[in-house]
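A student in our group prepared the protein record below, which I am reviewing. This is what I was given:
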Amino acid sequence: MPFGKYKDRYLIDLPEYYIVWYHNKGFPKGKLGDMLEQVYELKLNGLEDLIRNIKQRYPR
């Protein structure tokens, strides 16, 4: 996340309530909004582990 309380966190690591809040409010325009929407879909369908597995294989 590039700004705010959750700055420097991976989007997949944002709390679910925060992603849902963005979904209800409306995702921002551009690349960040697209990525947040994808994270919302992943969390909605219980697929966060796919991303977490990738993070474990390819750490920063």
Q: What stands out?
A: Helices lie at 16-25, 31-44, 48-57. The two ends are 15 Å apart (CA to CA). Residues 11-57 form one domain.
